[in-house]
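Work Package 3 committed the consortium to producing structural models of liganded targets before the mid-term review. Because experimental data for this complex are still outstanding, the team generated a predictive model from sequence and the ligand definition alone, so that downstream docking and mutagenesis planning could proceed in parallel. The input record is reproduced below exactly as it was submitted to the modelling pipeline, together with the SMILES string for adenosine-3',5'-cyclic-monophosphate.
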Amino acid sequence: MAQQQFITDELNQLQKDIISKNPSDILQFCANYFNTKLQSQRSQLWSQQHKAKAAGINLFPDVENVNINSFGSGVVLDRQPSFKSPFGDNDPHSNHNDDDPHGPGAAGAPESSTSNKAGLFKNNFDVSHQAPQKHDHDVDPSDSTTTSGSSFPGKSTGPFAKGLSKIPIAFNANRRTSVSAEALNPDKFKSDSWKPPTNNLTSSQRADLSKTLASNFLFQQLDGTSKKTVIEALSPKTFSKDTEIITQGDEGDYFYIIEKGTVDFYVNGSKVNSSNEGSSFGELALMYNSPRAATAVAATDVTCWALDRLTFRRILLEGTFNRRLMYEDFLKDVEVLKSLSSHERSKLADALSTEIYEKGDKIVTEGEQGENFYFIESGSCQVYNNQSGVIKQLTKGDYFGEIALLNDKPRQATVEALDHVIVATLGKAGFQRLLGPAVEVLKSNDPTAPRTHENASASQHPTSVAASK
Ligand SMILES: Nc1ncnc2c1ncn2[C@@H]1O[C@@H]2COP(=O)(O)O[C@H]2[C@H]1O
Ligand SMILES: Nc1ncnc2c1ncn2[C@@H]1O[C@@H]2COP(=O)(O)O[C@H]2[C@H]1O
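The resulting structure, written out as tokens with the ligand in place, is given here.
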């Protein structure tokens, strides 16, 4: 059933892309499309290896000399023996230098002089070339250069010192097949006789939980039955101030939702984040079957709800995983989000949902109250209002709908679809919380704000900031 849903979702997404891009070579387009998806999934897996290697262990002991680099759209390896072109081991077309599914070699694009000698057939599994040198600016948990001694609150020993501990030596060793299968195919678990745990909660605990879960994006996506299963499986855990709830490098056991209190996160000893009531943490190690990416410390006395690894993977992973994959690639290219770390982008991806509009549909209407913020995934829109008439057109990677949310004002313009438009929307609650540093960029770009000398000279139009157009 779930597998069927997965296939349907994949094909629907492909169909959307085909309609919006209208490629001239449909087979090449589909091949590129699925190659890009595969590459993205495999990047996730290889980033696990990257983190583990930095901590001194090799998740794939039979694979030596693997050189992993993170660049823009994914991870490219100098040698990537376990992940080859889906066209087979002896694929004559795999030695090319084409990273862009929509670039040279893609439908309609001109053949360049540097392109694959094999000509017609391209894929995205380049195993012998470097990708463009575009570095990620994320806090990299495995980057030893970010270690600044301990910046935990006044401590270098005790629970905080553990933040730099190594991954348990046997963790994930010799598990290449199961790691990749588990990380890449959450659906694999569905067939055995697993039963979710039940923790006999009191009715007041249940009531507290429903309230807490209502504001958690991961749970908002679940259907009624799955929500019930999760509620039954959650167990309460309390941590007194300064307790290390999760240690960077450890194996993942639980996913946590904060009921009360504040949790701080440290990567290689430096504080990177803080979360409060209703937020969740500890999902990365469970999703990617990787070592814990950060140390989580109770900044106050904390009450959490803990969900065991298996239940998390069975119930929550599938939707979350697919959603992240779907949006992460897109969000990476949205200029206004460049200041977000990859963790922040993942959180944002969890909270987005897709809406589709046809030519002439008004996505937001001048004067109405604003509830959502939008990114354009594909298609184009026109912005107009009574005062100025047509203001501008927006296309892929542009955003709109921020003014009403930033200023608590009615919509300042109507945004209408000019063709088949796919948008990713973010509700009011997630807007402030998940856009983090990007909110400041949105504020400084507000076209209705009085213009100072600096911002007047800085930009042409606020929404014309998509990176790749
Ligand atoms: N900047 C960050 N990088 C990595 N993990 C973070 C960060 N901020 C918060 N976390 C959370 O810290 C958790 C540590 O365990 P996990 O790696 O399972 O999942 C991680 C995230 O949920
Ligand atoms: N010059 C402009 N005036 C008003 N809205 C604009 C302008 N340019 C782009 N927009 C977008 O149109 C959106 C309409 O809804 P909001 O007012 O919430 O947010 C607005 C902006 O995102």
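Reviewers should note the following from the model. Residues 364, 370, 383, 385, 391, 400-404, 411-413, 415, 447-448, 463 surround adenosine-3',5'-cyclic-monophosphate (ligand 2) (CB under 6 Å). These observations will guide the Year 2 experiments.
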